[in-house]
Amino acid sequence: VLLLISFMFSAVLGIMLILAINYGWFIPYYALMLYWHVEFSTAMTIITVIHISWHWQYYLYIFKKIKTVEK
Predict the structure, then answer these.
(1) Which sign does the torsion angle of CA 17, 12, 29, 48 carry?
(2) What distance, in Å, lies between the first and last C-alpha atoms of the chain?
(3) Is 20 exposed, middle or buried (0-12, 13-18, 19+ CB in 10 A)?
(4) What is the largest CA-CA distance in the chain?
């Protein structure tokens, strides 16, 4: 849930920032939005690393299964 929430905030802010840059839209709190976009992205990265380290055996099983199917 935390990964999803951090992704959603980061994605929405990122899209708004892209639209502001590409279309020249004026956003009054551009710097604040950029700050929170980076913060949520950092949180998402940390949560992803924790999630992968928590479920590393599951991912290892999937990759072993894929490797066996390819033979």
Answers:
(1) negative
(2) 37
(3) middle
(4) 57
